[in-house]
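User: Predict the structure for this protein chain, please.
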Amino acid sequence: MADLSLFEKFVRTQIGSVAINRAPTEDELRAACDMVSRMMPIDDGDKENLIRKLQAALDVAMDVGIVIEREYEPWLAAKKRNNPNMQFFYWDRYALYLEQDLQRTSGVISTIDTVSDRVVDRAGDPTIPGALHRRGLLLGDIQSGKTANYIAIMNKAADVGYKVIILLTGTVESLRRQTQERVDEGFIGRSSKAYLQRNSQTIKKGVGSKDSRRFATGFTTESSDFKTNVVRGMNASLHNMSTEPVVFVMKKNARALQNLIDWLKDYNTNNQGHIDLPLMLIDDEADNASINTRGDNDPTTINKHIRELLKLFVKSSYVAVTATPFANIFILPEKNEDMENDDLFPADYIYALDPPTDYIGSNEVFGDNAEYAKSLITIDDANEYFPYKHKQYITINGLPESLYSALRYFLLANVARDVAGDNAAHRSMMVNVSRFVRVQEQITNLIVEWLYEIQRDVRHYCMQSEQIACKNKNMRALRDMWNDPQYCFGDYKLAWEDVQKNYLLSSISAIEVRTINQRSANWTIPNIVIPDYALLRLVD
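Assistant: Here is the predicted structure, written as C-alpha cells:
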C-alpha cells in the first residue's frame, strides 16, 4: 500500500512548480496525481480523497491587513536595499518549515513574510544608537493564525538584531507549555529542556531539522517556566551567551515574572541599572491580566512587572497580541502623557491581521447573513440537566442526548479524517456548558464513563459481522449516524462494515477526556486551550 503522506508531498512539490503563487486547478491536481502515481500507485478512492483535500488546502489566501499608526520613519526596507547580502537565517528556515512541515501555501507564506516585515519595521530598529521604546498592538481573530505570525515576527526580530525576546502567554501553564513547544519548533530549533539539562546531544526540532548551524537559546522549557536556580547553576547571563538571541516563554504569573526581573537585575544590568541589549516583548492574550485596572500609583501586579521589564532595557519594543483588544485600546489615563509614556497603550501602531480565506470564526457562524448559520442546531434538551442559571453545587445526574450525539459525531469525524489520510493537524472537541470547576468535573466524569463504554464495545464487536455487532446499542448508534445523510459521511463512499472492521477501533482508541481550568495547570494540550471547560480530544 502506498504511503499517502509521501505521495501527497510529491504532489505538492509538483504543483508548486506549476501553480506559482496561485491555487491549482482541478486538472492540474489530477495531472500531478497521475504523474506521481506512475511511481507510487494508489487506488482511485485515495486519489479522489487527496484531490479534494488539496483543493481545500491549496485554495487558501491571506491578505496583509491594515494598520493605524502615528508617523514614524520606516527603516527595514532601506536596510535591505543598503545591505543586499543581509542574512535572514531565522526567517528563511522558518519559511521552509511552514512550507514543508506545516504545508502552508506559498501565498500564505508570502503574506506572513510581508506582515512580519511590517510589524518588525514598526517595532523599531534595534541597531540605532540611543534609546528605543515602542508600543504596538497586533489584532487577529481567535484561532486565525496569530501564533504563526508572531513566531514569524520573532524570527525576523532575531535577524535584524533583537537579542532578548520575551513571550508572555496567558495565565494557564498548559497554554505556556503548548506555546513553548511551538516556539521550540518554529524559532529555537531544538529542545530547550534538553539544553537546560545540559544534554550533550542536541535534540533538533522543527526549524532545527531544516538548518542546524545556529540555535536561539531558550531559558524556559516545555516542562517548566523560568527557574532562577537553573540559570544560575549554568552561570549564565545575557551577555556571556553566544551572539544568538535568548528567548523566554512565560505565563503571566507574578512570582515567575518577579524571579525573571530579579535575575535580570542581579546578573545582567550595567552600572546605570539598565540592560543594553535590545528587547522585544510579545504579550499574547494581551487583554488578559496585562492591563492596569488601578490607578498609576498602584498598578496591578502583572501590569507593573511588564512595565518594569520594559524599563530595564535601553531598547525595548512591546507587541501586544489579542483577538479582543477593547481593554488595551480603551485605557483611560488621567493625562495624555500618562497614556503615551508609562502604560502599555499601543501608542505607536495597531496592526489588524486579516484571517486566511479558509477561516471560520464567530462572524461566519453567528453574524448577520452568516455563511455557516445553517450549521447551527438548536438544542432544546440541555436545560433539564444543567440549567442556564445554575450554581456551583448543582448535582449533574446525566447528560442530554444532544451532547451524546455530538460526542458520537466527533468519534466518527476522527474516522473520516483517518480515511482521508488527514493526520497532520490536532483534533479536539470542546464541551463548554458551565463556568464552575465542580460542575466541569462532574461532566468530565460522565463523559469519561461514556467513552469507556464506547471504546469497550468497539473492541468487543468491531470484528463481528455488522448484523451481530449492531445488536449492541452503542455500535448501532454509531452505524446509524454514519449512514444518516445529514452528516455527510456518505461522501467517503465507505460501507459501515468496512468502517467498523478497518477504521473504527484505531480511530477512537487514543481519545482521552481532559478538564482544563485554573486547577489543571499541569496538563499539556497540543492544540487549543481555553480555561474553564471540559475537553474531549485526540492524543497524538
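Residues 367 and 376 are 12 Å apart (CA to CA).
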